[in-house]
Amino acid sequence: SAEHPPQAPRISVVGTGYLGATHAAAMAEMGFEVIGVDNDPAKAQALSEGRVPFFEPGLPELIRKHVKSGRLRFTTDIAEATAFSDVHFICVGTPQQRGSNAANLSYVEEATMQVVRNLTHDGLIVGKSTVPVGTGMRLRSIVAENVPAGIDAELIWNPEFLREGKAVDDTLTPDRIVVGGTSARSEALMREVYAKPIATGTPVIVCDLPTAELVKVSANAFLATKISFINAIAEVCEAAGADVTVLADALGHDVRIGRQFLNAGLGFGGGCLPKDIRALIYRSSELGATKAASLLQQVDEINMSQRQRVIDMAIEACGGSVLNRRIGVLGAAFKPLTDDVRDSPALNVAAALHLRGAQVVIYDPEANETAQRMFPTLTYAESVEEAATGADALLVLTEWKEFSAAKPEEIRSLVARPVVIDARNCLDAAAWRAAGWWFTGLGASPAP
Ligand code: NAD
């Protein structure tokens, strides 16, 4: 391409889920020729046709742009990818193991092995998945044991910090680039691959392999701690008659603290934070580093207790039992701007109320379909109005803008009882009370 000399490195991205599909599209946007590999044929096929099998703003446009430009294609064939490219990003999942806090590393191990065994020329393998510290070192022995004779393969780590919902921007203009375990040659190659963001000022942190792995999980652990911290303070606020939202705004003006991740409420979920802190609890215990383990154990417990708290509030709001009560649930995604329902607090609460005999009707602007796949027995509505109609209580469990923009007077005319629980502190409490609602948030003083 015009932006790169003809010998520009060609790139493969192994695993094209939320992380990999975004990374592949961003690399094409930066001017490289990219091939994405996924062992799920339906996913590879959909992406090849420019369809993204999940909701991520801006991503379908970017993928279509570069499938069309010819710089981006997708396959299920790892050998095709290794023959084509020089830099291989490993972007497969590292979910929580069943019945343990530990991360399941089988996908990362398998993908690395497949890349290495299929190398036809020298290659750089770049781990991007979030892994427990020490994984890279283990993978290096897998590389050494499987690399074909006469071929040189190096493995480094380059963790990813993108946020779902803002994944495209985060990938094109990251806050920082961390590369761990590099040689002079692979560091130069990484600087070439990330030349565009580096040129616009993105800092590069070059470090050893374990530091690179640990930066990522520490970032997530810190964010999780911030959320559980404010939820702990919210409990004090409630007991003392203070308002946690005003408090968080005041705290947030201190640049050492910052306002983000200080929203009290139902707590964090999703495919990353919960499993990443649990993997860190497990790994730090394994290493005998008990302080991190006990701190994060508390963070996890506080977070999970928020879900129970909201379930209890709903039961109380329905007079002690939700049996045969109709409950309108606004939100299913674990946060706004995504359709991801992995470990979603909203769906957890909805399912728990359903188990207690409530008729739960859920509406989410993007996640109805993914939620329905996980909980087919719950009822799904097409709008806020439909979810609210006939409700004995209305629960706001994900802070979509559409919900905070809803008109309390209009919704009031649809429900059976004007009871609303704002588990994300995202509604204008005064406006809802003025419209005749019995309103409760989390960590706020009771109605005046
Ligand atoms: P995901 O489940 O959406 O995607 C993983 C993909 O890998 C799937 O499409 C799966 O089919 C594919 N796959 C598995 N084994 C494969 C193999 N051997 N060959 C080819 N493809 C294979 O997961 P995700 O959310 O994209 O997360 C991937 C990693 O990135 C995880 O370690 C996660 O912690 C990390 N991460 C995720 C985010 C995020 O916001 N989702 C952000 C930063 C880091």
From TrEMBL:
Taxonomic source organism: Lacisediminihabitans changchengi
Give start and end of each UDP-glucose/GDP-mannose dehydrogenase C-terminal domain: 328-429
This protein's pathway: Nucleotide-sugar biosynthesis; UDP-alpha-D-glucuronate biosynthesis; UDP-alpha-D-glucuronate from UDP-alpha-D-glucose: step 1/1
Q: Does the keyword DNA-binding apply?
A: no
Family annotation (SUPFAM superfamilies): 6-phosphogluconate dehydrogenase C-terminal domain-like (SSF48179), NAD(P)-binding Rossmann-fold domains (SSF51735), UDP-glucose/GDP-mannose dehydrogenase C-terminal domain (SSF52413)
As recorded in UniProt, its EC number(s) are 1.1.1.22
Q: What is the official name of this protein in its record?
A: UDP-glucose 6-dehydrogenase
| Gene Ontology MF terms | NAD binding; UDP-glucose 6-dehydrogenase activity
| Key words, A-Z | NAD, Oxidoreductase
Q: Which residues form the active site?
A: 272
